[in-house]
């Protein structure tokens, strides 16, 4: 067994890449971000339209749709900034990148300029997520709340694990999947990439995703996004380790089924690949109290006004009528 050792300093802080109101990641109306499948972090409801660097580092990934960018810090942390929700569907409209992959940036440098009015009208939300995609490198997160000023306000402090982090080389069989077609309408962007990375973490094997002449560690959201995989692209999974067969079979099926993304039509599997039984979706929570309505908060604040609840009323209709006198009495 071969091990390499990575040592890290003890603390890192990020400054606001945008001015606005800080929102806990758990409150973001997107389950992949809210459940921290992409990573730990914080969200900002912006009031300006230029995304700036929250720290010094190097641009290691810029999404083709120009709505997301990743900076790698000197400590090795990968800081993903994702402008808005479902903005990948805008296909770059409304976004103007100010940097390229490989550029060195300083805190406060402009990264992406965006048309806030256009994005707000055409996307689900303007909430911008700042997450650490390799959160396993961090032992403690301290996200801040309240208002933030770009380049000045500290929005997130992190304590890095001072212990040595071994990376073990896997041994065992190497298994390669048959080509799998990616059915997602906008390809393997942040949301499906995060789902795939999360699914891969339960396996011990080293797992790679191959696309053309490139490959990426399946456990890294940034690496997966860096492959720039579009709809109908053909990819392959390569796994080495004791559970390689299971990992390749289950992850191939997950990709083929669209990784849970709405609006994705699953691609039929090759005859040689056995289908897995899909689990039934979890039932939506319901309140036993008729005066309580369960929901999801889209943003912080106070709601003022009347709330109405529409309920189905069962009406019993008697098919056989009575005598004319009886029917007239009922009227």
UniProtKB/TrEMBL annotation:
Statement: the UniProt record of this protein carries the keyword Transferase: yes
Keyword Transport attributed: yes
Pfam families: PTS-HPr, PTS_EIIA_1
GO molecular function, one term: kinase activity
Residue span, HPr domain: 175-262
InterPro entries xrefs: Dup_hybrid_motif (IPR011055), HPr-like (IPR000032), HPr-like_sf (IPR035895), PTS_EIIA_1_perm (IPR001127), PTS_EIIA_component (IPR050890), PTS_HPr_His_P_site (IPR001020), PTS_HPr_Ser_P_site (IPR002114)
Compartments (UniProt record): Cytoplasm
Biological processes, Gene Ontology terms: phosphoenolpyruvate-dependent sugar phosphotransferase system
Keyword annotations of the record: Cytoplasm, Kinase, Phosphotransferase system, Sugar transport, Transferase, Transport
Function comment: General (non sugar-specific) component of the phosphoenolpyruvate-dependent sugar phosphotransferase system (sugar PTS). This major carbohydrate active-transport system catalyzes the phosphorylation of incoming sugar substrates concomitantly with their translocation across the cell membrane. The phosphoryl group from phosphoenolpyruvate (PEP) is transferred to the phosphoryl carrier protein HPr by enzyme I. Phospho-HPr then transfers it to the PTS EIIA domain.
Protein name: Phosphocarrier protein HPr
């Amino acid at each position: 067994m071969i091990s390499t050792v990575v040592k890290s300093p003890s603390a890192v802080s990020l400054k606001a890449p945008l001015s606005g109101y800080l929102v806990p990641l758990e409150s973001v109306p997107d389950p992949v971000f809210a459940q921290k499948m992409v990573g730990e972090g914080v969200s900002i409801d912006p009031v300006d339209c230029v995304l700036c660097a929250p720290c010094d580092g190097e641009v290691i990934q810029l999404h083709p749709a120009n709505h997301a960018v990743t900076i790698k810090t000197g400590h090795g942390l990968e800081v993903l900034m994702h402008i808005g929700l479902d903005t990948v569907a805008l296909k770059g409209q409304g976004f103007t990148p100010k940097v390229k992959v490989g550029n060195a940036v300083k805190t406060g440098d402009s990264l992406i300029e965006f048309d806030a009015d256009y994005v707000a009208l055409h996307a689900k939300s303007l909430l911008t997520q700042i997450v650490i995609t390799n959160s396993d490198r961090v032992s403690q997160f301290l996200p801040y709340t309240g208002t933030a000023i770009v380049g000045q306000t500290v929005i997130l402090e992190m304590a890095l694990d001072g212990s040595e982090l071994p990376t073990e080389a896997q041994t065992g069989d190497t298994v390669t999947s048959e080509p799998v077609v990616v059915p997602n309408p906008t390809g393997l962007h942040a949301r499906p990439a995060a789902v795939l990375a999360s699914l891969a973490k339960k396996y011990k094997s080293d797992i790679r995703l191959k696309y053309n002449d490139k490959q990426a560690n399946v456990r890294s959201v940034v690496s997966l996004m860096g492959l720039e995989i579009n709809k109908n692209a053909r990819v392959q999974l390569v796994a080495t380790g004791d559970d390689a067969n299971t990992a390749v079979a289950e992850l191939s099926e997950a990709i083929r089924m669209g990784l849970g993304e709405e609006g994705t039509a699953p691609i039929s599997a090759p005859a040689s690949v056995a289908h897995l039984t899909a689990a039934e979706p979890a039932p939506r929570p319901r309140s036993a109290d008729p005066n309580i309505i369960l929901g999801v908060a889209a943003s912080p604040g106070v709601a003022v006004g009347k709330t109405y609840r529409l309920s189905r009323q069962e009406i019993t209709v008697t098919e056989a009528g009575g005598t004319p006198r009886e029917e007239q009495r009922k009227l």
